[in-house]
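TL;DR need C-alpha cells for one chain.
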Amino acid sequence: MRAAGLALALILCATGAAADPATQACEPLPASLSTWGAPPTAETGDLTLGVARDLTLAPTTQVTLPVTPTKLGAPDSFSGLVAFEVAAAGDYQVALGAPAWIEVVRDGGAVASIRHSHGPACSGVRKIVVFTLTSGRHLLEVVGASTPTVRMMVAPAEQSASH
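>> reply
TL;DR here they are.
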C-alpha cells in the first residue's frame, strides 16, 4: 500500500497535478501596471493614473457612497471613495491588491465593467476590472474590504484578444 501511495505521489509530481502554489512560476505584470510594486506613494486626494497607491479605508458603516454598490460587504468591512481624472476616453483598468467590490461612478451612476480578471501570479494584484470611461472626473468606490488599507491603481487597459 505504501508503494502504491509513493507511486501516485510521483505521478502527480511529474504531471504537475499537485503543484505547490508557492513554487508556481510568477507571471510578469502588464506594462501598464509596471509600477505596481514600487513603494506606496504618500499621495492624498485624487488618484494619479498609472501610480499605485495604498488607499486608507474607513469602517463601511461610516462611509456614505454616491451610488449604492451592488455588493456591500460584511458589516465589519472597510470602504472608501477616491476620485481620478481621465484625459482621453477609452478603456481603463482598476487593479486591487485585496478582495473588495469596486464601482466606478460618473454623472451620478455606476459605469458597467467590461472585463474582469485575476492579477498575474506573484504580482500582488488580486483582481483587475476594466471599464470604458469618458474623459473627465470619475469616482472609485471601494467596498467591503477586510482590511483598512488596500493597494490600488487605475491605468489605461491593455488590449485583449477578446475586445
